[in-house]
Amino acid sequence: MNEINPSGWRPALGAGSVPREIETFTGNRALQLEEALLFEIGAADRSGVDFDDVPDFDLSALGPNARKAAPDLPGLSEPETVRHYTRLSRQNYAIDLGVFPLGSCTMKHNPRLDEKVARMPGFADVHPLQPVQTVQGALSAINELAVWLVKLTGMHGVAMTPKAGAHGELCGLLCIRAALEAKGDPREVILVPESAHGTNPATAAFAGYRVENIPATADGRVDVAALTARLGPDVAGVMITNPNTCGLFERDLKVIADAVHAVGGYVYCDGANFNAIVGRVRPGDLGVDAMHINLHKTFSTPHGGGGPGSGPVVLSEALAPFGPLPFTSRQADGSIKLIEEEDAHLEHPQAFGRLCAFHGQMGMYTRALAYILSHGADGLRQVSGDAVLNANYVLRSLDDVLDAPFGPAGHCMHEALFSDDGFADGFSTLDLAKGLIDEGYHPMTVYFPLVVHGAMLIEPTETESKAGLDQFIGAMRSLAERAVAGDEMLKSAPHLAPRRRLDETLAARKPKLVYKDA
Ligand SMILES: *Cc1c(COP(=O)(O)O)cnc(C)c1O
Predict the structure, then answer these.
(1) Strand partners, 456
(2) CA distances from 333 to 46, 122, 192, 338, 345 (A)
(3) How far is CA 223 from CA 192, 236, 271, in A?
(4) Mind listing the pLDDT tens digit for each residue in 24-82?
(5) Superfamily for 377-509?
(6) 104 lines ligand 1 (CB under 6 A)
(7) How far apart are CA 101 and CA 169, in angstroms?
(8) Distance 102 CA to ligand 1 centre (A)
(9) What's the whole-number mean pLDDT along residues 296-300?
(10) What distance in Å separates the CA atoms of residue 470 and residue 346, rounded to the nearest whole number?
């Protein structure tokens, strides 16, 4: 076996002895198989099942609905089908394969215990239209999770139904809108810092507000002076992410909240990064009125590829009366009631309405509750501590080869931010990110946040070991050195992936979504 190198990782056997550009007849490279479409490998005369002889069927009985020509569907045998999908799955990167450094996204290991709990029939096989007496256990689990979320955040209530962070933002802003309208004081403007996640301004606009940007200071935080200068009777609220998307704690959030409240506005906190402070900071103590928690980022649960997620919104005493229906309520006899429209006039008359057909994402609730209960309050405190420790380890291990714009000023929270400052002429963050694919990793988040030139945002999360981080850091160091030295090979990376560098603009603007036989 090859020696472990000084970065603590072992180069592949024979690395360097084989030319990188091997084109073969099949297009396959080593164990990476080039995969054709089902339509290309299938044929009409093949099938994975044997049908009994079909009795004569009078097609005229179907009238005008009868098909005029056979459907052009590819027939495949069972092994062909299984191999097709298994090969495709091997072209994907997953948290179960290695470090998944995406910043902001919090891709962390999902304990298998949580998966087991989510699959218990009493949770997995219930139907949202079942009578509530028959799903008391499931409702009780939702209620218990709600109690934990309120306690951990120091807030007053929680809207459990939103199905993702962005959906939670909408929920929070609709609560703010309802609260202001109830006072007869509808306002127009939501202030959003420059470093905000794109969903924040999008949500505010979707909720009918005009969005105004607040600049950042040189140390990567909200410019408090600029923000307070803009406050006035037209400002419905602010949306602030804490810790923010530069991976820094917004130390002045309480000051900001007091100023916003003084002019009659509300404070929305984007709580997607709650995993960095859970067990240590209670947003309720900082004057927050509404904050979504991405269960799928903070309390495990798988995500990516479109979901499913869950974004409960914790609410202050001022906003809780406006939260959406339905929600669970424990009754004096211990049973759980689902408060719906028919109860609302008595129990929750100011609800702004409802966001979801039913009660939300059961599979995410059960995973998150299992995660919380298996860690306990002390364990959650350690989760945030380890997440921050790991990010600082990455920051300090790379800040001699990569520019860390806010690094010299101190520690980061749960994610390490670098810029492309110092790369050779013509070399960019994209080149380094594509090079990371050749090293066997999913790229980090790139070009976000926008306040840093050529941003690279790395969030290792608490579930990585030191050995795993050292291996990742070794790959990053070598790529950073190549970008600074101007290694031309990096410009055409990835070389070892099933696909080369794609035209990302064309892929996004003119995707080919329909297969056409040439
Ligand atoms: C992930 C994220 C969101 C959006 O959450 P979704 O669950 O993807 O809708 C919003 N803000 C920040 C800071 C995030 O990291």
Answers:
(1) 418, 446
(2) 61, 22, 45, 14, 22
(3) 11, 19, 19
(4) 566 676 677 778 888 888 988 888 888 787 778 888 889 999 888 888 888 999 999 99
(5) Aspartate Aminotransferase, domain 1 (3.90.1150.10)
(6) yes
(7) 25
(8) 12
(9) 93
(10) 58
Cβ 364 vs Cβ 123: under 8 Å: no
Answer yes or no: is the C-beta of 270 below 6 A from any ligand 1 atom.
yes
Ligand 1 atom closest to the CA of 241, numbered from 1: 13
What are the structure tokens assigned to 27, written together?
Answer: 């297009």
Residue 327 contacts residue 339 (beta carbons within 8 Å): yes
Closest CA to 458 of 246, 240, 194, 269: 246
Q: How far is CA 211 from CA 76, 119, 235, 242, in A?
A: 53, 42, 10, 19
Distance from chain centroid for Cα 25: 39
For 426, left (φ over 0), alpha (ψ -120 to 50), or beta? left
pTM score of the predicted model: 0.89
Higher pLDDT, 257 or 306: 257
How far away, in angstroms, is 446 Cα from ligand 1 center? Answer: 15
Q: What is the pLDDT of residue 512?
A: 85
Residue type, 183: K
Dump the DSSP string for 1-49.
-PPP-TTS--PPTTTTTS-S----SSS-BTTB-----HHHH-BTT--SS
Q: Whose CA is nearest to atom 4 of ligand 1?
A: 165
Distance separating alpha carbons of residues 58 and 312, to the nearest angstrom: 55
What is the distance, to the nearest Å, from the Cα of residue 460 to the centroid of all Cα atoms in its chain?
14
Q: Count CB atoms within 10 A of the CB of residue 314.
A: 33
For residue 74, the 8-state DSSP code is P
Please, are residues 394 and 473 in contact by the beta-carbon 8 Å criterion? yes
Contact 260, 266 (CB under 8 A): yes
Domain-by-domain residue ranges, the chain? 113-369, 377-509
CATH of domain 113-369: 3.40.640.10
Using an 8 Å Cβ cutoff, are 228 and 260 in contact? no
Distance 428 CA to ligand 1 centre (A): 26
